[in-house]
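Data availability (excerpt). The following record was deposited with the supplementary files.
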Amino acid sequence: MINDISAAHPSTAPASAADLSALRLRMRAGSGDRHQRLDVRFEGMHGAETPAVYHRFVAVNEACHAAIEPVLERSRLCDVLLDWQSRNRTALLRRDLDEMAVAPLPRMAFDYDVAGLPEAFGAGYVLEGSRLGARYLHRMMRKRLVEPAFAGVSLLYLASADEPDHFRPFLAQAAHVLTTEASRDRAVAAANAAFDLFLETERISRSVGGAFPADVSQGF
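Predicted structure:
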């Protein structure tokens, strides 16, 4: 497949700032609509009166990470990013749910074909990006822990975002693979498939009734 053979092993050559910027802009332009729709559905989470929206946020992330991470572990992404398995966050998300006594959501399969590296990088882009965004959420949610309503909130997944930044190295390796418009299109399509899984899982999270406490946020 295009660009797959040349990226069989991690590249040590640094990607140029221009290449990184161009790739990031392309991924944002191609998947930004879905990303924004997902963000809107959890809007106001850190300012809500109760942790109900946060509970759903963790449950949705746990279900989606549990679906996508094993697929990527079986892909060739692990041949390029040798530490990929150490970046997995499903276990932390499950511990958050257990600590808060929140039931996990039903699993949906992520059956998008990520055998090609462009597709694997596209799906991985969504997970790496979510961890990058978790840094801000961690700072905001940590401030709420002093409030009685938030005393039982678990922030293990969000806290892991304070570890060394993997997003830039991820993009640097992706830039060595996604060197043509066709390969970038393939990555965008896979990213959109991953975002679609998040969006559908979030929709399901609002229809499970008593699985979550009353959600006082009404704008979803």
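Summary of structural features: The chain has one domain: 18-207.
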